[in-house]
Amino acid sequence: MVNKRQKTSKLTASVHIAEMLRLRQEAIETATRLEAVVDRIGKAATIEAYPPPEVAHKAEAVGVTKGKLNTLSTVLLGILTGVFIGLGAMFCTLVTTDAGLGFGLTKLLGGLAFCLGLILVVVAGAELFTGNCLMTMSWMSGRTSFAQLLRNWGLVYFANLIGALSLAGLMFYTYQWMLSGHGVGANALLIANAKVDLSFGSALARGILCNALVCLAIWLCFSARTVTGKILS
């Protein structure tokens, strides 16, 4: 009887040991899989961007290319940019029409909606006056002449204006301003009135800050390696 109990105890102990070893092995395998998942997430989350010196060289090279672009291409790309930015502004106006979300959240959504215009410009490779102010880098390096700089800025500025006005006319005759009980049109008028009521100093300061932010966005786009990176930047 004693021997039988001893054998039973040894068998039970062996079973427990085997179970513990199995659980230990499963824990090791689970930890290994978790480490692999964390490693993949870390690699996916790693920001792969060009370093600032390379971004500067890229911005300079782009400025040289823009300065040598022929008149027809510059004007057409500038008109397209006016349309793209206008679409972003229209989307922003539409989103901010409903102010029930509160001032801060409404402005945040409006800013995100306006980014549509910049995304289209970056992905399509159009000509935006504010972004083309970065051409000063190629001019200061001597690779773009002052005449090329002024020519590009002048053509792009008026081409952007033509594109934006053309889109505004088309949107008017589509009667999109009648949406939300004419709320979209009323919001557009409020935005326009707020802008024309600015003093010269206030408009100048806002314009400088706006141009700085746009140039920063273009700079970040130059640092991105993928289209997704350009959109997020």
TrEMBL record:
Keyword terms, alphabetized: Membrane, Transmembrane, Transmembrane helix
Keyword Transmembrane helix: yes
UniProt-recorded Gene Ontology molecular function terms: formate transmembrane transporter activity
Keyword Membrane in annotation: yes
Membrane-topology descriptor: Multi-pass membrane protein
Transmembrane segments: 75-96, 108-134, 155-175, 203-222
Subcellular location: Membrane
A GO-annotated cellular component: plasma membrane
Family named by the database record: Belongs to the FNT transporter (TC 1.A.16) family.
Protein name: Formate/nitrite transporter
